[in-house]
Amino acid sequence: MDEADEKFNVLEFAYNATVYAAGMRQEWKDTLVSCLVYNLILILAVLFFRKIAQFSMKRDYFYEIIAAFSFGVCHYTEELMFRAFGYYGMFPMVVINQVIFQKLNRRHGENAMIVAEEFVTGRVGDEDCLAVLSLQFAGALFCSFFFIVTAQDVFLKTKPLGCLFKYTKPLPIVMLCDFLGGLALRVLLELFQGRIISIAVIYAFLFTIGHAAIGVPVAHPVLSVAKAPECWTMVYELLPNLCLHIFSTLSGWLFLPYACQIKTTLRSMWAQKFEKDEVKRIAREKAEKQEQDAKLKKALKAEQQAIDAENRRRNQELRSRNSRRK
């Protein structure tokens, strides 16, 4: 009887294990298909909105909100991959998303900390900087609506993800990790600026480490804001935590240029645009000044020629009078 019971238990365990494995395989398949379909929809949406935005006089501002929106929406697929495959699925998903949407957005949607530093140091005009930051955070807040309307209830065979901005460690540890994340990102971007794949790997590394350490990816305030709308039920706890998160991350980013007096070679697209506009303005003023100088020189030359002609005429008249007297 004991042997029969033991054999039955073994068979039951094998059956349950087989059913569980089949269920896991189906879940993995559903997750991969959902992420693929979701990213394709997002890519088409970005291309469509960028096509419309190019007819606007302020197209760069529209590109900025589209870019922030696309980067923010990506975190849903990353969370799905994490829940299905753990960090082994999350890391490559972050790399793929960053590479795809960095190329699609063509430098728009850069990390808000770069723009914030340029605002503090005066490398970008106040109006441009405030507009960029406002549009980025607006795009991040729109992410939740896009996910609910177009993906979660239509294409993705998954349960609602719920609030994704939850700390798993005490607040002092969280602030320290945010500070170190901002500092590390500043150093690494300085070393690998302009290399899309390297930057994507850096973000994947920091997001994965932050998610494992404190429950929230570090070093990107806009993506943190994109996670916030689902947490409306805990708004009184969320808002202070979100403000402290952004403050700690920005403090880590600004530590090197202010505390250590280390100058950066990082330039956002807006800083480069501002510098190009400034160079064009200086060149235009210089050309206008040269044109004015040329006109003035020409006028002085014409005036001198007129004076010389008048002097020659008077000399000629004087010689004519003298010759008649003789």
From TrEMBL:
Keywords assigned: Membrane, Transmembrane, Transmembrane helix
Region listing for Disordered, in residue ranges: 290-326
Coiled-coil portions: none
Protein name as it appears in the record: Uncharacterized protein
Protein's organism: Caenorhabditis remanei (Caenorhabditis vulgaris)
Biased composition (Basic and acidic residues): 309-320
TM annotation in the entry: 31-49, 84-101, 129-151, 171-189, 196-218, 238-260
